[in-house]
Amino acid sequence: MNFLITGISGTGKSTLARTISELGYHAVDVDAETDIAGSVNIHTGLREVVPDPRPIDWRPGHQWLWDGDKLKSYFEHQHDDIFLCGNAENQTDFYRFFAKVFVLTIDNEALTQRLTTRTNNSYGKHPHELASALEYNQQFTKDALDAGALPIDAALASEAIARQIIASC
User: Fold this and answer.
1) pLDDT, position 117
2) In this structure, what DSSP letter does residue 121 have?
3) Distance between CA 86 and CA 133 in Å, rounded?
4) In the Cβ-directed half-sphere of 142, how many Cα atoms lie within 13 Å?
5) Cis before 55? omega within 30
């Protein structure tokens, strides 16, 4: 079976993928380990490399999307249960491929701390990126919950979250 663990940037998806793998399960950070996710120019429909840092005017013309054909192909070649960790603006289109969907929830204070201090990703360190993430946090979570995702408190330790998710699968 396939399980999705989602949340906005800074909720701990990459860390959780590593933790679940360390516990002996098949977990994948979809953003870092596959070519399923990518930035798509909304005017051309083409994938583009994400600049670092992102210019203030860059974000409105781009979306972070999953490629449905690549996602389906990925699942067709997997024989074990898989925990896919990641997010995309079109992710709810693919919820049907998952036995369960979990959304990592976080308050804006904790999200600010995580984004501004993490070392594995620069997103959120620039004021306009942080403001965008904080603005998006509540809506992303609401949309995921409305689509049937199960909430998980991202403030818990990674191993506790992993064990909670695994136990419910």
Assistant:
1) 92
2) -
3) 15
4) 5
5) no
Distance CA 109, CA 115 (A): 10
Q: What is the mean pLDDT of the chain?
A: 92
Q: Where are the alpha helices (DSSP H) in 23-123?
A: 30-33, 68-76, 108-117
Do you know the residue count of the chain?
169
Predicted TM-score (pTM) of the model is: 0.91
Rounded CA separation 61/93 (Å): 21
For 57-63, which contacts have Cβ atoms below 8 Å and span 24 or more sequence positions? Answer: 59/132, 63/39, 63/89, 63/90
Q: With b meaning 16 or more CB within 10 Å and e meaning fewer, what string describes 91-129?
A: bbebeebbebbbbbbbeeeebbebbeebeeeebbebeeb
Close Cβ partners of 149 (under 8 Å, ≥ 6 residues apart): 4, 6, 95, 101, 102, 103
Triad 107, 111, 114: Cα angle to 5°: 145
pLDDT in tens, 36-76: 999 999 999 999 888 777 777 877 888 999 999 999 998 88
For residue 150, give the H/E element and its range: strand 150-153
Q: Is the dihedral of CA 26, 28, 33, 36 positive or negative?
A: positive
